[in-house]
Amino acid sequence: MDTKYDDGVWEAMGISRAVYDEITLILGRLPDTDDIGTLLAMWDSNGRQQSLLGWLKGMRHAAHPDSYVYGGSDSSHKDIQEPRVADCVAIARSLSAPSDDRALRHTVADSGRCCLHELLYMVGDVSSLFLDSEYARRCLHLAYDPVSMENRDEERAYIGLILASMQSAGLVTAISEVSQGGLFAALVAMGGGSLGFDILTPREVRLDAFLFGEEQGRSVVSLPDKCDDEFLLKLGEARLNCCFLGHVTKGRILVDGTDFGPALDFFTTP
Questions:
Q1: CA pair distance 103, 119, nearest whole angstrom
Q2: Among candidates 269, 214, 220, which has minimal Cα distance to 244?
Q3: How far apart, in whole angstroms, are the C-alpha atoms of residue 40 and residue 2?
Q4: Rounded to two decimals, what is the model's pTM?
């Protein structure tokens, strides 16, 4: 039976009100003890490498798995070994360096610069694809097919419209579309080299695909903590998926607790 939050019952299981509300958001209904037990078991299986609330926010998009989630229809990338977080430092540095035949241009933030300590979200479907990306060409030496900026025009236009409206209303500070260089490059661009980020990656999506995949129809946004609830409410009304990433830092980049170094080391201009 679904039950409302009861301090004595849920806190005895280690579930704070914030975590309970997050579970309710994921399930779309009030959770019962079986729901809580299942989520706690999943959290345990991931080694409790972060807080339960942080893990839940990072896993939000997994509530309704679709073809874009790891294990979907395009699984050819499974034959390529997934890098560790520490390996991604070298990958990110490689992508930040000019290529012999084609310089990687960081996407300039579409609108505004993020501010210190703001929250970071990715809006749009999480993608497990990276085969048509600069990462695949440079680091995996796979045939490179430039990403078409027109292949998801409707999704991009709709997300852009919703986010621009939120920015006008003061809910969102900065917006940066995921494009060449993937999510990592979009986050670097948003900070302009002076601000970094501390993010956690979802466990059910390949790390390299999550950080460096270039599938269109996604944007990174930064927003003040006080706007978090209204931002999520508006996204729900717009029927848009999102993935909580982390927050803006003073100048260093951290991914899953691994220090990548100063953000300026990864920021290049055309």
A1: 30
A2: 220
A3: 17
A4: 0.70
Q: Cα separation of 6 and 94, whole Å? A: 51
Strands 242-249 and 119-123: antiparallel
> Residues for the chain: how many in total?
270
Q: Is the dihedral of CA 230, 246, 93, 265 positive or negative?
A: positive
CA distance 220 to 28: 24
**CB–CB of 181/98 below 8 Å?**
no
- Please report the pLDDT score of residue 120 as a whole number: 96
The strand order across the sheet containing 119-123 reads 174-177, 219-223, 119-123, 242-249, 196-199, 252-255, 258-262
Question: What does each C-alpha distance from 89 to 69, 83, 106, 198, 211 come to in angstroms?
Answer: 24, 10, 17, 14, 11
Q: Which two tokens stand for residue 217?
A: 């129809």
Report pLDDT digits (tens) over 112-171: 789 999 999 999 988 878 877 888 888 888 765 555 444 677 788 889 899 999 999 999
Confidence of residue 52 (pLDDT cuts 50, 70, 90): confident
CB 179 within 8 A of CB 238: no
